[in-house]
Structure formats: C-alpha cells, structure tokens
Amino acid sequence: MSRPFVSIGHVARDEFGDEWRLGGSGLYCAATAARLGRGATLITRVGDRERPALESRCADLGIALRCLPSAATTTFAFSMVGARRRLRLRARATALGAGDLGDLVDDAPVLLGSIVGEHHEDLFGRVRGRSVLVAQGELRAFAADGTVLPVPWRRADVVLPTLRAAVLSEEDLGGDLGPVAQWSALSPIVITRGERGASLFRGGRELHVPAFRPDRVVDPTGAGDAFAAGLLVALDDGQDWQEALTFANCVASFCLEGLGTEGLADREQVADRLRSGARLL
After folding, report:
1. Pairwise CA distance, residues 134 & 226, whole Å
2. CATH number of residue 240's parent domain
3. Which of 51, 130, 157, 281 has the fewest Cβ atoms within 10 Å of its own Cβ atom?
4. Which domain holds residue 248?
C-alpha cells in the first residue's frame, strides 16, 4: 500500500480571456505526489460549477478527492500589461479549518498549498510537525478590484512554529530576503531561485543546492509546487536536507518540460536524472 500524502488548499479557477483551467498549489502538489507513487489525497473547496471538472481531473491524475462545498471557487483572472502578467482575484472560496480534515491519517505528511491565505490557524495546529507550507498566499492581499498586492507575513509568528518547513520563491518576496533570518529562527525556510536552484535557511546557516537542467522549457507553471511536494516526499522518506533539496530540484526540473501537470515525472525518471542529470549553477 502506498504511503499517504495529503494536500490541503484551494483549487483555483484560472481564467485566460474566454478560457479557463484548474490550478492552485494544492492540486499541483497532489498531482506531483501521485506521480511519485504516493497515495495522494486533495482536501479543498470549490463551487458547484467547477466541481465536475475537478472530479474528472483528480480521477485522471490518481488523486483521492475530498471536495467540500463553497458558494464560489477561488478564481483568478490573468492578463498582460505590457510585458508583465497581471493577476486579479475575482472570487474566493470558503476557508479551510481543522474541522474539515475528517479522519486524516495521524502520521500522514501534509502539504499546505496557500494561494489566498485560506488556512485557518486551527488547521496549522492540527497538522503540527508534519506539514510543509507553500506560503505564497500568506504574503498576498487584494485591492478592491482584486489586484494582488504584496504584504508582510502577518501570521508568521503563529504559523511557522507548527511547520516542518515553509517554501517561498524569490518572486514571492519581491527579491527582499530581509525577513528570512527572523523566520528561520522559527522554522526551516526554503527559497526557490528558479534556474539557480534553492536555498535552505536553518539555524542561522544557509545551504544552497543547484538546479537540474531540464531537457526543454515549455511552461514554468507549477514548478515551485512540484518542488515543495518533492521536498516533503523526500523528508518523509527519511532523507536529510541536502538529499531532500536535491530530490526536490530534480522533481521540479521535469515540471518545466510540459504544460501544467503533463511534465511531471515518476520515481524512475527522477532517479535516472539524479544519477546522470546535468546540474545548473
């Protein structure tokens, strides 16, 4: 029987003009874990309109779905302003709390995928010591028109001590790593740096691990989520931080090679690249 992996977070309806697709860290992380051979479960909330598409998508990806009701699905509208992508929040699903977890396996590793800060504080306590947080949503606020605004991490002192690690990108931080030293006194902090790999801040020290070179780059969407899921899988397998970061970088490199979840690799593919793949500096 496969070792469980639980991903908790809003699934997003991502709109691109007249078209839309399902997204969100929770879904990408669950898909990554399923490809790596874990018994992946996704706990989320969506509205009735998107539910059939999500049920079908999870069935295709081999993800067990616990889909809770919500009046709306968290919805983002994407547009281009010059050469820059603009992101606007159009709707927001109901938050997720400890009472939504049901009969969660007590020792299952948990990935918390935050896109709009959707996790109640009691949920963090419920999964204390076994969760990795993709923290992007903790650093977001939204203007009246839905425009995404960067904000300080207001709940850091409460959330971080409950975590096994928090994962953020340089982009999430606007390139400002100033708060990381303070945060890393409360929990290991992992910063993803794109083609430059990832850095762990822990116990006053920094450990940098270079990225793997993908065969091609098709779409970077979800690479950070694939990294976070790979990191949690490796830590749950008993790997040390150096090994786990290396494994996570390798997992993320495959995500770049396809659209959405199409590029995600299985264990054998990851093992092959770990043995022979070229590293980027």
Report:
1. 10
2. 3.40.1190.20
3. 281
4. 4-271
